[in-house]
Amino acid sequence: MGGGVDAASPQDGIVAPSIPEHVTPILARLWSSGHAAYVVGGALRDAFIGRPATDWDVATDARPDRLLALFPDAHYENRFGTVQVPAGDREIVEVTTFRRDMAYRDHRRPDHVEFSDSIAEDLARRDFTVNAIALGRTAEAPAALLELVDPFDGRADLTARRLRAVGVPEERFEEDALRLLRAVRLATQLGFVIDPMTLTAMRSAAPHATTISPERVGQELRKMLAVPEPSGGFRMLAETGLLAPIFPLLAQQIGLEQRKGPGVDLWEHTLRTLDAAARLAPGDITLALAALLHDVGKPETAGDGHFIGHDVVGAHRAAGLLRRMAVPRREADAVVDLVRWHMVGYRSQWTDAAVRRLIQKVGRDTLPRLLTLCEADNIGSGKPGDSGGIDELRARIAAELERGVPLTLRDLAVDGDDLQESCGVAPGPLMGSLLDRLLEAVIADPARNERETLLADVRSWLAVDADSSGTQAGSGDR
Known about the structure:
This protein is an alpha+beta fold. It is built from 23 helices and twelve strands. A hairpin with a 5-residue loop joins strand 5 (82-86) and strand 6 (92-97). The protein is elongated, with a radius of gyration of 30 Å.
């Protein structure tokens, strides 16, 4: 964090993190205008433990209309008191009025909120003690020293690397079921253990997880997948009873045997594959999603120890899940393709044409990630990553691409205009099928990708089709 305000706690002299430059002017304007103002939330928590701190939030006793008057460029469109204040180059700081939440009837959001003048009241409504710490001051306090407000001993929990609900855990999860998933995600991200009382309350409240919107599940899922060993979070979901209500497709894998070794059911295989993918390609969320979902079609296709068609079924199920979680279309399509084609089944006996067909079918952009998924799948099955000739296949694919062999319709030496002008083929389904047939021919034998050769092929095919049609018509007359 650069520049900004340094602070010490008047209670114990502990040096607190510095506040970044783009946030300091917002605090200063609030203080000079007679308001209390504090930085709060996840960025402050992360700064205390040395993690990169982003998305700084401010809490204040100023009401939204007052904030809009103090910050004319700000934006306000919700009923919870949060005003978005532009700060520096493309930075936005969320400034929220102190509040107290009232009753929650749907385990998702408060029926209404009441604004408050107390930072202590505002912190009491938060989810976990490590997020219920504030750094700032009132307008009347000495400007040279900021106050560290920590009514629930959140700093002690940070030191102990412990995640603990604020107040009565059962009440926190009853209020907002999303906190159940956030507890797992934060523990996974931060490497914290969950406090026993909080963990017990999570198990009791697990059925409420069905009320979490799929979009919010998707947001938390991405963060869970972005850690070095993501299996830990999913094991925690299973152990707390959260997996079935949140990810029923994954919960069906528990206990499903698939001959991967003693004690390795489908669920364990999935988790091992997921961790292997994270090691092979750190930070690749698309690959991690594919590793998590690559076998979701197996429970539905189980039979006699085989899972025939699980790649096709799995791709369909993955597409539906990703759509519900509002995963961006482009990324969702990439994940679905990886699930669909992860059963490559390569053999050294493949011809070069077979390798080219694989490239054409899967797509050259998808193949590198697909082969990494296959490696992870091998590792998740207790095998070396390059089992099944993955490295050999990778080398053969690279060789074919280096040769510049035709793999798409754009690579053909002719196009639709050529077929129309030289062969009299009108635009339509026939033209499309002829171009596809030409592509298959040149994938089998790239040397055929010459304009006159391809046009001769088309004329020959059209003649055969015409003769066949005439013969059939003649047969009908006899």
